[in-house]
Amino acid sequence: MKIQSCSELQEFDDARFVKKNLYKGNGNVVFLLHLLPGQEIPAHTHPGKEVFLLGLQGRGSLWIGGEHHTLGCQDFVYCGDEDALRIYNDGKEGWVLYVVLAAKKEPEVEQAKKPIKRHPSLFPLSHHHHHALVMSRQLKQQKEEPAVLREKLKKFWNEGGQRHFREEEEILLPTYSRYASVERPEITEMLMEHVRIRGQVEEILEGEEEPSGKLLYNLGTLLESHVRKEERIVFPMMENYIPEEELSRLGELLADD
Ligand SMILES: [Fe+2]
Ligand SMILES: [Fe+2]
User: Fold this and answer.
1) How far is the CA of 40 from the centre of ligand 1 (A)?
2) Best CATH choice for the domain 6-103 from the list 2.60.120.10, 2.60.40.3600, 2.40.160.20, 3.30.200.20
3) CATH (one of 3.40.50.2300, 1.20.120.520, 3.30.450.20, 1.10.443.10) for 107-253
């Protein structure tokens, strides 16, 4: 345990901003930033970290992913590791910010620790989830041109993606509905995400112009979180309610890739 007074650490310097660490360990850093009027921290990102900021004293400007915001005393901001962050004191007094850089947990690592046991009848759907995760990683990392990514998305969608969504809606959910209520937030969320994913895929595939990086990234993020939710929450729930003989019958109805 450690108790420390933030006011004791307060320090401004005419030459440049001052950073004072409160805590550092396990991939996390907590510190105070002190900026005099006119001082700035140029745009930068924090790969692998989640960023939390709280205004402690004074006010100033933040640009998060190019968007301008004013941060006053007691205002809180969160930004992800992909958001470029610029901090500039355009106020009239010293500006103090409390900052937490928290290490992001890699979902793959988390999953590797806890292998999910899947009923064999749902293997075809889980197998397709693997393709969806590969696609979502490509959309997020954007190592290829948007036009190339669009072609890959088209192939993914036409050669199984679309059919996978239909199988969940037309085979899996109706079977489940015979044994348990579909009026649950997990199912509503799953279906709403299907609608949003379909909408975003259409926007990318049918757009006249090349898709923007943001559009591709957003789809990648949504697709990834959707698949993980199904694997960790929805499918275990289905396996729990659908009787064994019905699960076996389901396996025969699902496409095998
Ligand atoms: Fe789904
Ligand atoms: Fe799915």
Assistant:
1) 44
2) 2.60.120.10
3) 1.20.120.520
For residue 121, what are the contacts with CB-CB under 8 A and spacing of at least 6?
247, 248, 249, 250, 251, 254
Structure confidence by residue, pLDDT tens digits, 44-69? 878 788 999 999 999 999 998 778 99
Q: Helices 123-141 and 213-229 meet at what angle, rounded to 10?
A: 150
Distance from the CA of 205 to the center of ligand 2, in angstroms? 20
Token pair, residue 256, equals 């095998």
Name the DSSP class of 230: I
Report pLDDT digits (tens) over 135-154: 999 999 999 999 999 999 99
Q: How far is the CA of 154 from the centre of ligand 1 (A)?
A: 17
**Average pLDDT in the 163-184 region?**
95
**How confident is the model over 75-115, as pLDDT tens digits?**
999 988 777 889 999 999 999 999 999 988 755 444 445 56
Please report the pLDDT score of residue 109 as a whole number: 43
Domain spans of the chain, in order of start: 6-103, 107-253
Give me ligand 2 centre to Cα 214, in Å. Answer: 23
Q: How many angstroms does the Cα of residue 157 sit away from the middle of ligand 1?
A: 13
